[in-house]
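Field log, afternoon session.

UNIT: design team B
ACTIVITY: writing a sequence onto a fixed backbone
BACKBONE:
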């Protein structure tokens, strides 16, 4: 698929065919392409946990426990995805990397960072996975785990301290799905969000 087509066709898919698993080789391509993302100092401070079969059900037993009616409706289609990829950011990898001699810092002071690039870079890795999913003819949705359940999820899956759960990527073969009502907001144009040379300048 041409890259432009991948970009245009990417959207969040919230319903899947539960009877069609993601092929092993496709799963591995998705993961490997994600690891091609850039990272500050080549720190690669990310980690990913794949959940399939019973492990996937372990996630949902915690994440969907005692939800409200709106949440039940929202996750019904997501729960049919045969593959979940949990994305984690590892801040210490960046603080350690930039304290190495070639970076010229002598400490791990987090205040030196203008933005938390451990989250930024993990997000870029996920985006490459989303694009790979489209290129493979599948569907995916990136969503957040319920904040109140994150601690239990980390414990359930043995995640070490220092790894922050950024979000979850559901992957599978698309099933009939309704478009997100949020799309009614419309896509903002470059004229609205791109500033040229000075914040007050929008015109090309």
């Amino acid at each position: 698929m041409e890259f432009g087509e991948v970009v245009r066709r990417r959207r969040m898919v919230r319903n899947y065919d539960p009877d069609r698993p993601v092929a092993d080789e496709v799963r591995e391509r998705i993961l490997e392409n994600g690891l091609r993302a850039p990272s500050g100092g080549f720190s690669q401070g990310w980690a990913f946990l794949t959940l399939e079969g019973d492990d996937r059900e372990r996630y949902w037993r915690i994440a969907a426990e005692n939800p409200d009616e709106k949440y039940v409706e929202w996750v019904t289609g997501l729960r049919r995805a045969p593959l979940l990829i949990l994305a984690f950011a590892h801040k210490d990898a960046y603080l350690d990397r930039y304290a190495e001699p070639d970076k010229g810092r002598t400490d791990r002071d987090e205040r030196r960072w203008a933005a938390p690039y451990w989250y930024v870079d993990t997000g870029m890795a996920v985006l490459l996975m989303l694009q790979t999913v489209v290129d493979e003819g599948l569907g995916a949705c990136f969503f957040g785990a319920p904040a109140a359940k994150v601690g239990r999820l980390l414990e359930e899956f043995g995640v070490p301290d220092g790894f922050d759960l950024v979000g979850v990527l559901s992957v599978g073969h698309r099933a009939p799905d309704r478009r997100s009502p949020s799309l009614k907001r419309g896509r903002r144009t470059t004229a609205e969000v791109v500033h040229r040379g000075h914040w007050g300048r929008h015109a090309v």
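LOG NOTE: The chain is about 35% helix and 15% strand.
NEXT ACTIVITY: expression trials, pending approval
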